[in-house]
Structure formats: C-alpha cells, structure tokens
UniProtKB/TrEMBL annotation:
Name of the protein this chain belongs to: Aromatic amino acid aminotransferase
Lineage: Bacteria, Bacillati, Actinomycetota, Actinomycetes, Catenulisporales
SUPFAM superfamilies to which the protein is assigned, alphabetical: PLP-dependent transferases
PANTHER family in the record: HISTIDINOL-PHOSPHATE AMINOTRANSFERASE (PTHR43643:SF3), HISTIDINOL-PHOSPHATE AMINOTRANSFERASE 2 (PTHR43643)
Subunit note: Homodimer.
Modified residues annotated as N6-(pyridoxal phosphate)lysine in this record: 222
Amino acid sequence: MADDVQTPKLRGALRGIPVYKAGKIPDTSAFKLSSNENPYPPLPGVLAAVQKSAESFNRYPDMGVAALTAELAEHFGVPAEHIATGTGSVGVAQQLLQATSGPGDEVIYAWRSFEAYPIITQISGATSIKVPLTPDEHHDLDAMAAAVTDRTRLIFVCNPNNPTGVAISKDDLVRFLDRVPSDVLVVIDEAYREFVRDDSSPDGLELYRDRPNVAVLRTFSKAYGLAGLRIGFAVAHEPVAAALRQTAVPFGVNSLAQVAAIESLRAEKPLLERCEALVQERTRVIEGLRAQGWTVPESQANFVWLRLGERTVEFAAMAEVSGIVVRPFAGEGVRVTIGEVEANDILLRVAGEFRE
Ligand SMILES: Cc1ncc(COP(=O)(O)O)c(C=O)c1O
C-alpha cells in the first residue's frame, strides 16, 4: 500500500464521543444488576407468539408497524398518527435529535442522567448543555429553563431520572413546560413509568395532549421485559411524529419485537403484577439500606442510587466478588437494579459490610 493512502474521512463530530458503557455481563454466576433489566423471564404467551413469528423471519417486518401502532393507540387513548416506534426508546431518541438538531444547535438535559443523551447529541453535531442535578438529586428545572437560548432545539427530561431514580412532581414539570418556548421540543423520557408510585409525579401522556412541543418516550425494555428485542415508542403531535417516521431506519423494528409488544400489551395484567413485586422489593431494599445508615434517594424506578463518590469503584468491586454486578459511575456513585430477591439480599449484605 502506498504511504500516502489516507483513511476515509469521517465526521469531526464523532471525535471524543463518550463510549456507551453497557452494563457489565457477569462472567460467573453473578446476578446482573447493572442494566435496569427486568429479572423475570418472558411470559409463556409472549414467548409462544415470538416463536410462532420466528417461523417467518425470512420476510421483512411490517415497515409501518401498523398492528402494534393501532394497539398502542387504543391502549393509551391517543391518535395512531401520534405514535412512532423505533429500535428501543434510545433509537427513537436518536431520531428525535436527527429531526431537530444539528451543528450550532443546543440540547439541554440534566446531568447526571441517561448516559445515551451526550452520545446521541454529539453524533447529531449539536452541543450538549448539561445542567447539574440539585444536591438532593432532583432536576434543577429552574436552571434548565434559564439555560434555554435561541439555539435550543430539544430538552430531555428524564422522569424518573436514570441513575438517581428521583421523580419530578407535576406542579414542577408544568411550571417548567410553561416557561419553555413553544418552538423547543421537550422530550419526557418515561422509560421507567410503570414503576412510579408517587402520585404527585405526572403521566407525560396527560401533559403532551395540549402541548404540541412535548413528546413522550416509552419503552418495552423495562416493565415489559423485552430489552433484547429492542422496541420503544414516542407519543407526539404532528409534525414531530411525522418527522420520526421520516427519520426511522426502514424496517428497523423487527417482526419478533412487533409481535412481542402486541402480546405484552394484551398481557399487561401479569406484567404489571411483576412490576408491583419489583416495586415492593425496591421498598424493602431502600428501607434496608436506610436502616444501615445510607442516604438513598426516593427511587421511583427499578433501581437504587448510592452516591459513593471516591469509593464508588471499591464498592462495585466488592459487590462483584459477592455475586452481584452493579453499575459504577466512577467518582460519583453506583446504580443498582432491583433484581431477584436473592440478588437484592446480596446487595443489602454487601452494603452493610461496606459501611463497617
Ligand atoms: C432513561 C432511559 N431512557 C431510555 C432508555 C433506553 O431504553 P431502550 O432503548 O431499551 O428502550 C433507558 C435504558 O436504560 C433509560 O434508562
């Protein structure tokens, strides 16, 4: 090869993009509490429907995702035209950026929050404006509203927030939405909605109805246990929903995911019972940790947050040796998914020993 051969020119925006650290996969028999997955295996009916559908995966899926979209519209009482599906809600979030933001534009979100936000923002070419959480782990909505400029195109509001689990109250969110200009899209990311038990926290689907600049993100990965099939959706007014259809990867939502999502909506009762069991485990874990003297934010999601600062990595290592893989954010804290009862017991044991 000649010396002057150059590598293909890539976009400068890709330089220095933070790497998405997927929850570590345990290499032993350890419990994986690092990705906020649902510990329950697929429901038999959902699995059977997927297996049946797998018999014809030589065919492309329905590109318009019509059957699932109709089912979602009926289920949530929204017009079908307001629904856009994608490869996980992170895929839909990326489409929202493609549809709204590019070089010179600004995207606001709280920090720390879902670690995909900085990555997908940078890929779009836009600039991240990270607004620190308050000392008690809440979104600083006043500071976020004050950060809006004429370059702002999109604001992510993660409710409840990943990784802290803290939920925003309806009053606070409404006050914030009232301050955001109507030409800025606010995306309420409700990946953990089904685990929320705090009645003061709003259902984004109620807030979006009379606000054309609000989009709601939901996923089948968490409460519905379909993380491996990659399907999520947004509910948004036109023209946002239409823009999501324009930016969709053709045939991106595969046929198994479509079938599984439909079957899951029909099996909502047993799935929500599982969520309730996880919520009860969350209460047990939080109470147990607090009894040991830990400060634990009031999580409304399927995980808990321990702000360990400089001792974060040490805690994660000790947890792993004890049989649970948690998610460390070095220098900040660990996020631990609520998993199997046995796994949660290990967390409580490790946390107790760590304090001694
Ligand atoms: C806040 C938040 N939004 C979105 C997602 C993406 O989920 P998925 O792409 O599996 O729908 C996650 C996953 O961890 C999350 O925590």
